[in-house]
Amino acid sequence: MIHTPLPKACFTRRRLLQQTVAVWAMTLPALPLAADSPAVQAAIDAIIGDRDAESGELSLTTPAIAENGNTVPIAVAAGGRFTADDYVEAIHILAPGNPVPEVVSFHFTPRSGYARAATRIRLAETQDVIAIAELSDGRVWRTANEVKVTIGGCGG
User: Fold this and answer.
1) Which of 30, 47, 78, 152 could be disulfide-bonded to 133 (CB atoms 3.0-4.6 Å)?
2) What does the pLDDT profile of the chain (156 residues) look like in tens digits?
3) DSSP E strands, 5-156
4) Distance from first CA to last CA of the chain, Å, rounded?
5) Long-range contacts of 80-86 (CB under 8 A, 24+ apart)
6) How many Å apart are CA 106 and CA 88, to the nearest integer?
């Protein structure tokens, strides 16, 4: 049997599926949530209350571009080594472009030693991922990174 290569104009199943998904995604209406939507602001207010969020020793590591929104790796770290009186109580991750903006909360105690966590999250669209750290002395740190998503992961 003689193997004849396919002409370059032919589509592979993978390429056809990618183009079909891309066309389908362009026809969907935009998700109703935005970074300044009432649902997102309510989620942030539930965490920080009337405290002012400041930039502090909070780092959020995300990819600049996520080729698939179904599994986006993130890592957060806050502060240094804990003491009994000075530690990070919680780090919250929010994704304002998702149908439910609250993604995950990590809780720590003085015995945790450090406030570090890593996981994978779903992102519905290109958006800012927000990290908020609550400290034992009442302070709140906040940071955000934009993640460009080429294929959404939450559906709509």
Assistant:
1) 78
2) 566 555 555 556 666 556 655 554 444 443 334 455 788 889 999 999 999 989 889 999 999 999 999 999 999 999 888 888 899 999 999 999 999 999 999 999 999 989 999 999 999 999 999 999 999 999 999 999 999 998 766 655
3) 53-54, 58-61, 65-66, 72-78, 88-94, 102-107, 115-121, 127-135, 140-149
4) 48
5) 80/114, 81/113, 81/114, 82/108, 82/110, 82/111, 82/112, 82/113, 82/114, 82/115, 83/110, 84/110, 85/110, 85/136, 85/137, 86/135, 86/136, 86/137
6) 10
Q: Indicate the length of the chain as a whole number.
A: 156
Token digits of residue 36 = 């300044």
